[in-house]
Design brief:
Layout: H1 16-26, H2 29-42, E1 46-47, E2 60-61, H3 63-72, H4 115-123, H5 130-141, H6 153-163, H7 170-180, H8 193-202, H9 208-225, H10 229-236, H11 240-251, E3 276-281, E4 284-288, E5 298-300, H12 301-309, H13 316-356, H14 358-363, H15 374-381, H16 385-392, E6 396-399, E7 402-405, E8 413-415, E9 421-423, H17 424-436, H18 446-455, H19 462-471, H20 477-480
Parallel strand pairs: 3-6
Antiparallel strand pairs: 1-5, 2-5, 3-4, 6-7, 8-9
Amino acid sequence: MIKQGLELKQTQKLSPLQIQTIKLIELPVMELEQKVREELYDNPVLDDTAPGGDDGEPKNVSISEMEDKENKEDGAADEYASYSDDYIPGYNLRTNNYGPDERPAYDTFSVRQSFTQSLMEQLGFRRLDEHEKTVAQFIIGSLDDDGYLRRDIESIVDDLAFRANVETDAAEVERMLGIIQQFEPAGVGARNLKECLLLQLKGKKQTPSVKNAAAVLEGFFEDFSNKHFQRIMSRLKLSEDDMKDVLKEIKRLNPSPGGQIDDSYDDQAQQIVPDFRLDYDNGQLILSMPRFNIPELKVNRRYADILENSRYTTERSQKEAASFVKQKIDSAKWFIEALRQRQNTLESTMRAIIEYQHDFFIDGNESHLRPMVLKDIAEKTGFDISTISRVVNSKYIETHFGIFQLKHFFSEGLENQAGEEVSTREIKKVLRECVDGEDKNNPLTDDELVEELNRRGYKVARRTIAKYRSQLDIPKARLRREL
């Protein structure tokens, strides 16, 4: 049975401007520059050229100026608004979200010999027939970025048969792998960490400490990983000095040989480009948002003329062209207004963070960081928490004592013994200091770390210490023990 009825439902839809603003707020400055240039390429109405030509006539106009004209005309509500010719020649549509200072281009690339190419070059110096070279090249192509071969030999044999139409067997693959394992960097082609370290020791001068290190890794790798040094010393009859020499030798080895060489010609050299700059001058904190290479946006004059002239024609082709231009101008309005709102949102958020963490921004002392969560800044700015989260994500600020990600300033809080709320970041810093200053022959357990922090005035539970220790990548006491 089919029933019909009316239902009243309230829904919320985002406008194109809101959607555009949300997307732009998330972008850091480098990606914003790319987005602006993409918009310039996609939207012919937008232009970033100078406002005047050689003849002194205006070539570009501002959307705000066009809107002023539109509102003053009697036909403001008409589908095609009127735009007069008396545009202000020197007026550009500035997004107003960056200062005038320029900066050298930052799209530099790091181009070095690739990891794979280095191995292929070394392979070329070996006397191998074409069949053997094909097998060896396939093995090199199967190595991971860190230089390890994590595929079993039989899988490589099968892949050579099905993908490269090369018949081989496990013995030949093992033999070619053995040749590759002689290449630089030492340890390349290993199938696990143990083999990687042993390959590196094999290529060293065979001193007593190197031989002892090889014996430790070969026969007691698990005990060594768990730092059961006394058991190893007893089994191998090593003195404490011998064991210390073994540890020194192994610490010199590289667990990730492939990481020594860049594996791409295309990887962009990663740089941090701050979205904000904070200067400290005469006791005042001065915030700025550098412009960098982001162009100023304007509307190309000839498209405004097309829209203007369409009011006085009845030709279908010109009406269709004007309709297209109007769509592009609307899109330009949304994009430029979104840039303005992005600037206002980022600046208001950053000023609220600076005000909240004022003492920290004076001297950079971590102990001056107050507990702060997204909700605190949302309440100060009036923005939604999700908006603050988008602003904070992937943004950096340059200060007179270093460059920081905005996330660095957010942390939860705990009470100290005086009843004052302190940042968890401060507690983590104290925890790190305790671990760094401990006796490595007898490292502090979690219970002892709790007592130490309590002595310093921080009330923490054992589970909190374990949680923070994990977040700081600090191993358990047993794994921190040294000879």
